[in-house]
Design a protein that fits this description.
This protein is α/β, with parallel strands linked by helices. 47% of the residues lie in helices and 15% in strands. The protein is built from 12 helices and 9 strands. Strands 1-2-3-4-5-6-7-9 form an 8-stranded parallel beta barrel, surrounded by 8 helices. The longest helix is centred in the middle third of the chain and has 19 residues. It comes from Streptomyces albiflavescens.
């Protein structure tokens, strides 16, 4: 059993050979099933111009899922502040919070959501990368507009997404809950957490430090099956190690035939050791160890598995082994 709630991050991986519309259709079933399984919240990530990840706006997916579910919390994880005018973010998520009171989250991040410079410039109308001061102003303005301009009643719950100490410092200064991208930069997690907790200033949004850890989780009945299911994302990651964001999301069969370099194998093995891959017993232990090491208030699982049925089975197995007593405990 685990002492913290479980949530999920949807990155909407697009299957090789299938239209992106199929991935979009799957997000509906995914939200409904996660609610049935008892997951606390489901967030949608913002991505652009990638053959492996659908460019589906988090605000649209949030609105769609909220209309088709009744209890699970929904929102962005995250919407990327440099790509949007603060008042528009406040209006969009403020409206969602008014329509679905107590169920909407506004997770804000910094990155461009793309590995393509021309796409990043198009998103920002030709502007260059955001400075630290500009990002802070964007986040602060979005929060201010939520309160002073939108003022529709119930507010979305704001979170700051971070994978670094700099992001943790901003979350602490603004008094926001923090969602740490352990699934992207696990080596930064403990240092970022230490800074966040040490420098946290209470605010109207959060009275004490509040920590969500996002961890890549691939669970199957056996270690071998989990490794097979993780294969497609390994191929995508190997491309990212070379600075390539144009690698499609292959089938498990295509991934099993992929040839990795020794350096890629080493990097992938090191990364996987800090995530939660394997059988239910292995995954349960790794997630519990992560909670113990970080003192997290919540875990968010991201599960980049090719087939929807296998992905849902992973979430089901984790919930069964972490949140429900086994026969020996009953």
């Amino acid at each position: 059993m685990i002492s913290v709630p479980l949530s999920a991050l949807e990155v909407a991986m697009v299957q090789t050979g299938a239209p992106a519309a199929d991935t979009l259709r799957d997000t509906t079933e995914f939200a409904r099933r996660l609610e049935d399984l008892g997951y606390l919240r489901l967030w949608y990530a913002e991505h652009h111009h990638s053959p492996a990840i659908g460019a589906f706006p988090p605000v649209v997916l949030t609105a769609h899922a909220a209309a088709l579910t009744s209890s699970i919390r929904l929102g962005s994880g995250g919407v990327l502040a440099p790509n949007h005018a603060p008042i528009m973010l406040a209006e969009q998520f403020g409206t969602l919070a008014a329509l679905h009171a107590g169920r909407i989250d506004l997770g804000i991040g910094r990155g461009p959501g793309t590995f393509d410079d021309s796409t990043a410039r198009a998103l920002r109308r030709g502007a260059g990368p955001t400075t630290d001061d500009e990002y802070r102003d964007d986040v602060s303005s979005t929060l201010r507009f939520l309160v002073d301009e939108v003022a529709l009643g119930p507010l979305p719950e704001p979170w700051l997404l971070s994978s670094s100490t700099a992001g943790a410092a901003l979350a602490a200064a603004l008094g926001l809950p923090i969602a740490l991208a352990h699934h992207i930069r696990p080596d930064n997690t403990l240092a970022a957490l230490s800074h966040y907790r040490e420098h946290f200033s209470p605010s109207r949004w959060c009275r004490r430090p509040r920590v969500l850890i996002c961890v890549e989780t691939v669970c199957a009945e056996t270690e071998q099956e989990a490794a097979r299911l993780a294969g497609p994302m390994d191929v995508v990651k190997a491309g990212l190690l070379k600075g390539r964001g144009d690698i499609p999301f292959p089938t498990p069969e295509e991934a099993s035939a992929h040839s990795f370099t020794a350096e890629e194998v080493q990097a992938l093995t090191s990364f996987r050791a800090q995530q939660a891959h394997g059988s239910p017993e292995t995954v349960a232990k790794r997630l519990m160890d992560l909670v113990d090491a970080t003192r997290a208030d919540e875990l968010m699982l991201v599960t980049p598995i090719y087939a929807l049925a296998d992905r849902l089975r992973s979430y089901e197995l984790v919930m069964q082994h972490l949140m429900m007593p086994t026969a020996s405990q009953q």
